[in-house]
Write a structure and sequence with these properties.
Helix content of chain B: 25-40%
CATH topology of chain A: Glutamine Phosphoribosylpyrophosphate, subunit 1, domain 1
Strand content of chain B: 25-35%
Number of strands of chain A: 10
Shape of chain B: globular
Largest interface: A-B, 25 and 19 residues
Helix content of chain A: 25-40%
Shape of chain A: globular
Largest sheet of chain B: 8 strands, antiparallel
Order of helices and strands of chain A: HEEEEHHEEEEHHEEH
Strand content of chain A: 15-25%
CATH class of chain B: Alpha Beta
CATH class of chain A: Alpha Beta
Order of helices and strands of chain B: HHEEEEEEEHHHEEEEHHEEH
Largest sheet of chain A: 5 strands, antiparallel
Oligomer: heterodimer
Number of strands of chain B: 13
CATH superfamily of chain B: Aminohydrolase, N-terminal nucleophile (Ntn) domain
Structural class of chain A: alpha+beta
Strand order of the largest sheet of chain A: 8-1-2-9-10
Distance between the termini of chain A: 72 Å
Chain lengths: ~230, ~270
């Protein structure tokens, strides 16, 4: 009988983390940023059907990078959790924090259990508050850690370069058009020389505080994105 | 923690998810309603017009011979292009409407597209059929469903019976205890190609006639200024009429009834 190789827990976790990180860095970046009327999500995504950004609940939006089947699975689980909670209690009782916690525990358990391979995903959960001060943006990584995002956040692809471009240029009082132009330029700055991303390749959605409907999430059409970028 | 049930590959239906994950939350009850006093909603009227559909409900809820509530809301938006008016056992009807709202929104979020109008009506029919057991015990729910169909570009009305039999009405329909009188009234007042204002006036006339002859239907409450709730769905989506606009139409209707209490008369031939 052969003896199994000994692998130290440190090495095991490091290998798993490297594996997940590599998968996440392969795609393009997603940017989430606050603007004057709410929170905007901007992703480079040529596909019209496979979304990286979506609505979870009235005030809660979701954006993800990495492996599509894995974050789609988490997105659907999040919609189910939110709808179940809202239905059994009240719509006001569905919070971004609760959802971020559920995601963190799920990702953490999958990461540290030996059986499953770690999820190669990173997630933003953004919640629009009644006032800008109450806005919350959480960033969840493949190992289940949660970070509070202030102002703006980038994940996936060459996220450091995009983040570097945004630092110093982003302000919370930007108009939607300004925020969109900034995010589009930042996403194009992930390579040398910088690329110009065609508007049709941008997936954009906002959590808009000025919307009168209870559901604040709104996806922008190609035409709206183009006209905002040109304005 | 999102365990297996949440992450399972399944359908886009919230009701089916609820049935596996939390069946106790589905509207249900056991036992008989015999001898119980439960709240009942009464009359709902809907009519199509040029460019949309209008639905209105009286504001009374009854509990046996007692008026349980004078200002109940019986017409609820279910998504941007549809609404449901409820008649029957209020507790179950309101819960069913809430579930239907979540069902439509859930599908929309998961699939990234809205259900077709017929798809929505079929889902509602399934929910009503699920309540058949309770209906047999006297706790029936009979909703009226109205929607603006973006594909056909017209307003549509669907009526149901307690077994979930779906029945589309092209012009107007009414459900609830006063519906016989409301339908008779609309039959004489309804004309194809009406404007939104005319349709709302016809609906308020019909509700007045229902309240005139049915004890469970509430008429306009002049001292408390409580008037029917009017919902309109057009290509621009769902919109509830504000109180002043409804009051203005209701006042005009009442003004006319001061002269002829039975309302406007139709030509004999």
């Amino acid at each position: 009988m052969s003896t199994p190789f000994y692998v130290s827990p440190e090495q095991l976790m490091k290998d798993r983390a490297d594996f997940a990180r590599k998968g996440i860095a392969r795609g393009r970046s997603v940017v989430v940023l606050r603007y004057a009327d709410g929170i905007a999500f901007v992703a480079e995504n040529p596909s019209r059907a496979l979304h990286k950004i979506s609505e979870i609940y009235d005030h809660i939006g979701f954006a993800a990078v990495g492996r599509y089947n894995e974050f789609e699975n988490l997105r659907i689980a999040g919609v189910r959790l939110a709808d179940l909670r809202g239905y059994s209690y009240d719509r006001a009782d569905v919070t971004g924090r609760g959802l971020a916690n559920a995601y963190a525990q799920t990702l953490g358990t999958i990461f540290s259990s030996g059986g499953e391979k770690p999820y190669e995903v990173e997630i933003f959960v953004a919640e629009l508050g009644a006032t800008p001060d109450d806005d919350q943006i959480y960033r969840l990584t493949y190992d289940g850690s949660v970070a509070d995002v202030q102002g703006f956040g980038v994940m996936g692809g060459q996220s450091e370069k995009v983040e570097e471009y945004l630092t110093g240029k982003h302000r919370a009082d930007l108009s939607l058009a300004e925020a969109l132009r900034l995010a589009s330029a930042a996403l194009g700055n992930d390579s040398e020389p910088a690329r110009q991303i065609p508007p049709a390749d941008l997936e954009v959605a906002v959590l808009d505080r000025t919307r009168t409907q209870p559901r604040k999430f709104k996806r922008l059409t190609d035409r709206q994105v183009t006209s905002l970028l040109e304005s | 923690m999102l365990d297996g049930g949440f992450r399972a590959v399944g359908s886009s239906s919230f009701v089916e998810f609820l049935a596996t994950q939390a069946p106790e939350l589905l509207p249900q009850a056991t036992g008989s309603s015999a001898g119980l006093e439960v709240t009942h909603g009464t009359t709902i009227v809907a009519a199509t017009f040029d460019g949309g559909v209008v639905m209105g409900g009286d504001r009374r809820a009854t509990m046996g011979n007692v008026i349980a509530q004078r200002d109940i809301q019986k017409v609820f938006p279910t998504d941007e292009y549809s609404c449901v008016g409820i008649a029957g056992t209020a507790g179950i009807a309101v819960e069913m409407t809430r579930l239907f709202q979540v069902e439509l929104e859930h599908y929309e979020k998961i699939e990234g597209t809205t259900l077709s109008t017929d798809g929505k009506a079929n889902r509602l029919a399934a929910l009503i059929r699920g309540n058949l057991g309770l209906a047999m015990q006297g706790l029936a729910v009979v909703p009226l469903f109205a929607a603006y169909d973006l594909r056909l570009e017209c307003g549509r009305i669907f009526a149901f019976d307690v077994t979930g039999n779906k029945n589309e009405e092209r012009t107007f329909h009414s459900v609830g205890s006063g519906s016989t009188f409301a339908r008779g009234s609309l039959k004489k007042l309804y004309r194809p190609g009406m404007s939104e204002n005319e349709a709302v006036t016809a609906v308020i006339q019909a509700l007045y006639d229902a309240a005139d002859d049915d004890t469970a239907t509430g008429g306009p409450d002049l001292t408390r200024r409580i008037f029917p709730l009017i919902s309109v769905i057009t290509a621009d989506g769902y919109r509830a009429w504000d109180e002043e606009s409804t009051a203005a139409v209701a006042d005009a209707v009442i003004g006319g009834r001061m002269q002829s209490p039975d309302g406007p008369s139709a030509p004999l031939t």
